[in-house]
Amino acid sequence: MESMNGHRPEVNQLVRRDFAGTSVSRENQATQALVAKARADIEARWTMAMHRPRNMDQVRTLLLKECRRPGFASSAIYRKPIGDGVEGLSIRFAEAAARCFGNIVMEVTQIYDDEHTRVMRVAATDLETNVTWPQDVTISKLVERKTLRRGQTALDQRTNSYGDAVYMVSASDDDLLNKQGALVSKALRTCILRIIPGNLQDEAYEVCNSILSDAAAKDPDQARNAVCDAFVLLGVKPTDLEEWLGHDLGAAAPAEIEQLRRLYVAIRDGEATWPQALEQRSETRGLAPKAEKKSSKAEKSVGGKGTASVRDRLLAKLPLEEPSAEREPAWMADDPS
Fold first, then answer.
1. pLDDT grade, residue 271 (50/70/90)?
2. Paired strand residues for 18
């Protein structure tokens, strides 16, 4: 087909005429095919969601069935070494919940990349309610190393909490892939759990807790051996576990074994590291003895003999009021004898 001026459009060339005039654009057939495929995939997902909506009773039954399996329950809850410990539902739980919930689309797209940083966009969409939770993940292409290999150059350097030097070096392909997988998985877990109803998460959490408590109480030796075997795969020896516990591993209570199991899940999922767990544990243990020592010293001074102890006993009985700075009360004066 020729245009008005006798010019014939080339292949993949589109001529548009409107009130603004005539415009010529080129379109790639490969691009058109990809766009058509993406549109067809999206329409198919939404169509299947409309024809096969989820049944919440069925979802609850399937998810709680998963939680009643001891193997799944042991990996469904993690415990991060922050303060007294922060617990949550793990990546493995989010994956199982997405399968049971159904009609959820999870997408991971690379939106930026340079020599130092890569940005991935992670999103989860509920096809039935049209609710989408996106999250951008920034991945640094640097990793920390305690030592440098021959010929390796450090891009940056810092000092860790132990006073040792830590070097920042360029990540290898395997390091970058592992780092990206861990960060993307955590972002997906966050997006998925925002779609799963909270009451269903709470019920699943309680079921997992009860299953793990019963298993540890029935056979503590087997639970302890399973935890030791799991940590060995992470390079953590039983002596390291005893350092974390503060006593012999054989004397560990079922509750302590369960804390170690959840700590293992956090380390495996990239939520924490073993040095962080040891550091947090030592800080928690170091605060308690100081407080006890201070209180015992105060009790000793109150229960002693002499003028100072009499003054302390009087202070303990009287209201806690600060004396005036102008004149010291007579009852606080030293004994003239």
1. confident
2. 21
